[in-house]
Amino acid sequence: MVFVRQADRARRRLQAKVAGVGGWPVWSLPELLRAYLIGVITLAATLTLVAVLSMSWHLGQLLSFAGLLACGIVAIEATRGVREAHTAVHRDLQTVWYLAAAITLPPGYALLAPIPMAAYRIWRVDNGVLYKRVFSNATLSLAYGAVSVIFRLIPRNVVGSTPGANFHVLLWTLAVTGCALIGWVTNQGLLLAAIRMSDPTARLRDLSGNRETITADLLEISLAVSLTLVVAVNPVLMALALPSVVLCRHYLMRSQQVAQVRIDASTGLLNLRSWQREAEFEFFRALRASTPLAVAMVNIDDFQSVEETAGRDVAMQLRRDVASMLSEQLREQDLMGILGGQEFAIVFPGASVADARRISERMRDRIAGESIAIESGAQAGFVFRLTVSIGVAVMNETRRALNELIGAADTALDQAKGTGWNKICISVEPAGEAG
Fold this sequence. Notes:
The protein is α+β, with helices and mostly antiparallel strands. It is built from 16 helices and eight strands. It has helices spanning 2-19, 31-54, 59-78, 95-104, 107-112, 114-124, 130-153, 167-198, 204-208, 211-233, 238-262, 272-289, 303-310, 312-328, 353-368, 402-418, and strands spanning 293-300, 335-338, 343-349, 372-373, 383-384, 388-394, 424-427, 433-434. α3 (59-78) runs antiparallel to α4 (95-104), α8 crosses α10 (211-233) and α13 packs across α14 (312-328).
């Protein structure tokens, strides 16, 4: 009865969405983006239909395909209680099943696999915008359909349909890994093109080139290649790989969820609450170990007038670029967060007065020495030159709480701004020292 009620609810949701086709959000998208999304979806649907109609069906392949789908569905069910993070490019390890289908089964199965998986997730999870779900699964169909075709273009006397022994299994695994990378590049390229059309100011490096996303992608590729090797040896063995995939999927989704809560979406920096928590930890560690520590407050000079003149979109890009340039000058152990529209906070663990001054001067000179070109919008091509004022406070015997250190840095920042832009003021003692 429960299953029947759930199916009935899913049917009513689908009917309501189809009935309101004229009001779908996709029609309100910019024309170029809308054409791109519809084109990719149409291409994937057409290729899938052609492949399915022209394919020879065999019971063994159908059973293997059904097993992969069943494992993917079990993984969805096992992590259904974990709320998905609404990141631009979401990682959930579902592609491990698609790679196995692409390598061990004919191309039609790889094109078809994302469709029942997406339908099940929409039914059971119902999380996210429908057209985005459909588009992302269309990119997966195209990517892993291409992978299946490419793998079969490799001469059979080189890799063969199944891994052999000794050197052959290594060569086979290398070929599968290369195909996995091709699938990843194709899928990411299609997704990032849509993101760039949607938000021309988006920095693709921030979406797919940071340490967290690279780690997640490497984990996904590693699991996908391992699962494919297992399935190629004997499809029944995929059941042994399922628990590992489920656990990794749960961990990855949790980490993305936590990261989304901690990170400011517009700059990629720690938000205020997360920075304060991390800074508190570093402060008490320095206090216990009697090691130096400094805090800096960085303010973009006259940024409010820039925002009022150039507009919000330009201000967002400028803020993001300034955050990136500041981060480039920091040490690995330093922590930076964003406090507001134009102010950043940095904690320097283990930094003496000389260290804090040297890093602050590097940051100030980096911002003042480079112009920022606007990439899109009505202001595209305009160049801005910005400066920052920096207030720094160093922990000492009179500052035994993080709030006192932050307050001293704020006071130093006020002194820096009061003496003109592009200034640094360092407070070692309660009274500030200009720099």
